[in-house]
Amino acid sequence: MEREHRDPLRYTTPTTDPLLITTKLTVPLQYLKRIVPRPHVYALLDAGLERPLILVTAPAGFGKTTLVSEWLRQQNCPAAWVSLEQTDNSPTRFWHYVIQALHRVYPDINIHNYPPLTSEQENIEAVLTALINTVTQMNTEVILVLDNYQTITVPSIHQALTFLVEHLPPQLHLALLTRYDPPLPLARLRVQGKLVEIRTPNLRFTQAEAETFLTQAMGLQLLPAEVHTLAQHTEGWIAGLQLAALSIQNRLESATDNILTPTWETERSVIKQFIDTFTGTNKYIMHYLTDEVLNQQPEEIQQFLLETSILDQLNASLCDAVTGQHNGETLLGTLEQNNLFMNVLDNQQHWYRYDRLFAELLRYRLMQRTPEELLPLHQRASHWYEQHEMFVEAIQHALEADSREHAADLIEQHAWSYIQQGQEQLVYSWLTQFPTLDVTTRPMLAFLHIRMLFFQAQSEACEQALIQARQSWQPEMLGYIYDLYASIALAQGNGAQAIKHAEQALAQNQAYWLHSNTLITLGAGYLMEGNLEVALQFINDGARLSHTHHFAPMLQRANMYLGIIALTQGNLHAALQIFQQLQLEHSTNTLWCNVATCTHLAAIYQEWNDLPAALEQSQQALQLVEQAGYEGYTTAQRFIVAARITRLQNDKAQAMSLLNQAEQSSQRFGTNPTLLAQITELRIHILLQSREAAAARQWYQQYKPEHQEQLEQLPHDAQEYWACAQARLLLDEAQGRAAQALLIPLLQVAQQQGRIASALKLTILLTLAYYAEGNTQQTLLTLEQALLLAEPGGYMRIFVDEGAVMVALLTELYSRYQRKPLNEPQSTTSPEKQRHLKKMTGWSNDLSLGYIYTLLHSFGAEIQPPLWLVSQENEEAQIDKLSEREYTVLGLIAEGHSNQEIAQKLVVTVSTIKTHLNNIYAKLHVHTRLQAVTRAYDLGLLRRSEVQSH
User: Fold this and answer.
1) Above 80 in pLDDT, residue 647?
2) Residue 34 has pLDDT above 80, yes or no
3) What is the pLDDT of residue 876?
4) Residue 779 and residue 776: Cα distance in Å, rounded?
5) How far is residue 820's CA from residue 547's CA, in Å, rounded to a whole number?
6) Is 860 left (phi over 0), alpha (psi -120 to 50) or beta?
7) What is the mean pLDDT of residues 768-772?
8) Residue 311 has pLDDT above 90, yes or no
9) Structural domains in the chain?
10) How far apart are CA 365 and CA 290, in angstroms?
């Protein structure tokens, strides 16, 4: 059937029954500056034109009237509109309005052509039968909209409307706009396909719609973050957003009444203050919800709403326990049916919650009306949650009920299980509500509080509390105390003290989770002392115990230290795998673990010269720190890595500022000598590169240890950083021999301990020291040794950051290699030295010419690629020749997997993998696995931050 193309809102002007208000038959006008387009909801309404009934149901203020009236303006179908009120609860009056509305769009429908209306059901059905027969003669379709249908409560009207719906001709579509479901046979209509439903979730504004509404319809200048906050707090409730916008407008007018030209800063301050304090107790929100929702409910419903408003989630049993009644299931069903800002949380309809603003209003009204009931309500809620083993909620309500002893009992019983699940911040939020704790009567709670002070880096308060605890606690608590002392020693960079206290803790009778934590701490202490073998042993022991007993945070901590050991050994690819796996588990990790993971990943990507990936991880770490207000060792490392990244962006001032923040953060538990030395060395490097030698020397003199004995007592890492800082200052004065004297002893120790990362840095500086002395042969030999150490991990920035001198040295070494007769030259390092370096690195290949080329290329040096990299074919054609499986194998090689491991992952034989490798070598014109990976990075086949995806 064709629809007549006419204005859907135009109507004729017939004679009207004097008892009817004609304005109720008019589609409401909209007064906003701009209506928010809602095409996804309009599409649902369009679908309703293929069905007899459209049901639009949602609480007050969800824009039902605005939505449908705007949709009608876009339709070619005429519309009849009736705005209903409670006074229309008379069958004759109701149907007079309906027939009169239809008459306006189709004059042949006339009340005078039908039998006189009475209240008798038979009479009404006779009139409706005549109406239906008239409609069947129409050549056009009509939409009949009944707005505010929730005001109709007379059963005979519902019965008659059901009769009309079940016999609707295709020319007539009925749209009901209501706050709750009408008593019509909706289930049957749904099954018969005669119903289109548009409910609250469809009507909530999305983030984009909220932005359009606030900035364009309401004319506010809001930042995206401010829009996001308002949209979240109102949960897309349109009236809530509008009332919030009106409040902002009023505040802006009040704040700028006496200002001729309000500044942007003034407006921003007003808006921010409003958004920060916006709740359901805002006077506009409160008046609207009170008048339109709460006061419309029977007293029984109002009382139920107020008493259950203390609950974040509701079910029937919980509501009965809190209210002391036995009608929870019935009333929850009524609230859901009546759309009273109620959200269903599960498919079984057992759990519900109130909309946020509505709940805030209810709690405010409860406090005003019966404040004396608040504590008993929370007490009853706490006991119900405890009985149902929902201890987080039980503790929270016990605290709200001011039942401190009950809350303390629950926290002591269950805190460790939540800490083991990575929910330390939750436990600490409970502890902050206990301003004083008696260590003799509540030793475990007191220990948890001290532990919280440690992780919040409140060093003075933590140490004072520990001193008091040692004097008062029973022997069974000593294991906890020594474990915490060991952790503090780690934060202070004192590996020897960490080992001492960890061993003291292990000598006590410890719980499994604490025993695993202490083992990991002991391993971390040995790592700090440079003993990687023993460190690995204890950390792996702690990891196994954590895995056996499902202590997730302890296992994550162990894996974090395994990643740090991989970094120490120069194995960046293995470290990448560990940290990426930890990042996949971020939702269950502790805050410390998440910050450290992002920080170490940023450092790896920065070393690989992948600035976008490094920036992403660094910014993510910063966000975590800001969200939690977290301070301490990990935060200091984050600032150091961020400073390195910022330096790559040529922003020296910001880099130095970040180093200042790192220093402040590192001092939260007293001066950490390793962090201080690391920060100072980086400052000096940056200043020397900026040709500010005087400033660099000033920094060095200000922070360096006063005596050699003090320096020798520092951790090996701190000694190395101070030596590197001093060596750079000596090299700036061309004192190569003095720099060598500093570096060689430390290099020998690093080599003996297998600390490749330290050995690499020291070897590079030693290269520059030989160069400053003018010893070309020793310079190139030492540089070659550095390259052998660096190539397995793919190090780049550690060379690039040394600037023009390193370019010249690499170019010279490259040119000498190019003159070798073999395509891939042998190392010039002595066989004995090669064996030693291979033992250190675990790498079995000779130095790759392609690696030197890649480094020079990253400098921007214009050099010819090695012969084996020069292709006779078009480079694009070569890339295309790799099959999908060859790409996969190449990615797994880049991750550091052996042939056997790749075969197991791909469920093929090792010989098949070797065949793929030979194909890859041939297509990329390389001869080794490392050359293949280097070539792949150079051609863009792989990105270092994405090797896990291959």
Assistant:
1) yes
2) no
3) 45
4) 5
5) 53
6) left
7) 94
8) yes
9) 22-203 (3.40.50.300), 207-278 (no CATH), 872-950 (1.10.10.10)
10) 9
Reported as half-sphere exposure (CB side, CA atoms, 13 A), residue 11 has a value of 24
CA–CA distance, 672 with 633 (Å, rounded to integer):
9
Judging by beta carbons within 10 Å of its beta carbon (0-12, 13-18, 19+), is residue 644 exposed, middle or buried? buried
The one-letter amino acid at 319: C
Terminal C-alpha separation, the chain: 57
Q: Which of 176-185, 241-250, 857-866 shows the highest mean pLDDT?
A: 176-185
Q: How does residue 30 score in pLDDT terms, banded at 50, 70 and 90?
A: low
* Pick from 516, 525, 464: nearest CA to 496: 525
The yes-or-no verdict on residue 950 having pLDDT over 50 is: no
3-state secondary structure at position 262: coil
- Residue range 667-721, pLDDT digits in tens: 776 678 888 888 999 999 999 988 999 999 998 888 888 777 778 888 888 899 9
* Average pLDDT of the chain, as a whole number: 84
**DSSP readout, 654-696?**
HHHHHHHHHHHHHTBTB--HHHHHHHHHHHHHHHHHTT-HHHH
Helix axes 756-773, 804-818, angle to 10 degrees: 90
Residues 6+ apart with CB under 8 A from 632: 455, 457, 491, 592, 665, 668, 669
The burial of 509, by beta-carbon neighbours within 10 Å (0-12 exposed, 13-18 middle, 19 or more buried), is given as exposed
Residue whose entry in the numeric block shows the structure tokens 């690629």:
865
Distance CA 181, CA 177 (A): 9
The C-alpha atoms of residue 790 and residue 793 are separated, in whole angstroms, by 6
Phi-psi region of 270 (alpha: psi -120 to 50; beta: other; left: phi over 0): alpha
Residue 424, exposed/middle/buried by CB under 10 A (0-12, 13-18, 19+)? buried
Q: Are 663 and 679 in contact (CB under 8 A)?
A: yes
Strands 352-354 and 342-344: antiparallel
CA-CA distance, 662 to 636, in Å (whole number)? 4
| CA dihedral sign of residues 150, 152, 156, 161 | negative
Classified as helix, coil or strand, 697 is: helix
Half-sphere exposure of 1 (CA within 13 A, CB side): 16
Tokens found for residue 891? 């990615």
Among 378-392, 729-743, 764-778, 875-889, the least confident range: 875-889
According to DSSP, the β-strands at 53-57 and 352-354 are unpaired
Q: Which residue has the tokens 């975590």?
A: 624
In Å, the largest CA–CA distance within the chain is 117
Q: In this predicted model, which residue has the larger pLDDT, 403 or 843?
A: 403
Rounded CA-CA distance 25/22 in Å is 5
Three-state DSSP at 825 gives coil
Q: Which of 59, 183, 169 is nearest to 109 (CA)?
A: 169
Q: What is the predicted pLDDT for the residue at 296?
A: 86
431-440 contacts at long range (C-beta below 8 A, 24 or more positions apart): 433/399, 433/407, 434/404, 434/408, 439/468, 439/469, 439/472, 439/473, 440/472, 440/473
What pLDDT shows up at residue 588?
Answer: 63
Q: Answer with the residue of higher pLDDT: 899 or 190.
A: 190
Which residues have CB under 8 Å from 731's CB, separation 6+? 739, 765, 768, 769, 772
**Quick one: pLDDT at residue 837?**
47
Q: What is the dihedral of CA 89, 92, 93, 99, to 10 degrees?
A: 120
Could you tell me if 600 and 563 are in contact, meaning their C-beta atoms sit under 8 angstroms apart?
yes
Phi, psi of 687 (to 5 degrees): -65, -40
Residue 539: which of 558, 557, 555, 553 has the closest Cα? 558
Mean pLDDT for 279-289 is 84
- The first and second tokens of residue 512, run together, are 């499994």
Which residues pair with residue 455 across a beta bridge?
none
Amino acid identity of residue 925, one-letter, is H
How many Cβ atoms from other residues are within 10 Å of residue 145's Cβ?
A: 24
* Burial status of residue 359 (CB atoms within 10 A of its CB: 0-12, 13-18, 19 or more): buried
The yes-or-no verdict on residue 502 having pLDDT over 90 is: yes
